[in-house]
Structure formats: C-alpha cells, structure tokens
What we know:
3 helices
Amino acid sequence: MKYxxxxxxxxxxxxxxxxxxxxxLLDMGMGKTSxxxxxxxxxxxxxxxxxxxxxxxxxxxxKHT
Length: 65
C-alpha cells in the first residue's frame, strides 16, 4: 500500500522536518502516527539527519501501525 497523505498531513510532515522540536496536536483518527513515521522515514533515509529514534506508543498502536 502506498501512503498518500492529505494536505494537512503534508504540512505536518514538513513542519516536523523543518523544526527540531515539534508537537503535532490533532484529533483522534487524523493520522498523527503516519505523519510522524513519514517524517522520520524522510529524516532517516533521505536526508540522513537522524540515526536513532525512540518511539513510545500504546501497545495497541505499536502492534497495528
């Protein structure tokens, strides 16, 4: 499956990539997890700015995302 973010998700992804300290405050079901994972993927494998990541998530989110 290919991830096709919506406009607000693209904005949030770019915001995370441009700001070293960021918070994404969105309602349930708006794709916070996919936003962060997409930004981390770009930072780790495209620009090589990040080498290690610690993700803390509820068990349900960690298993199914």
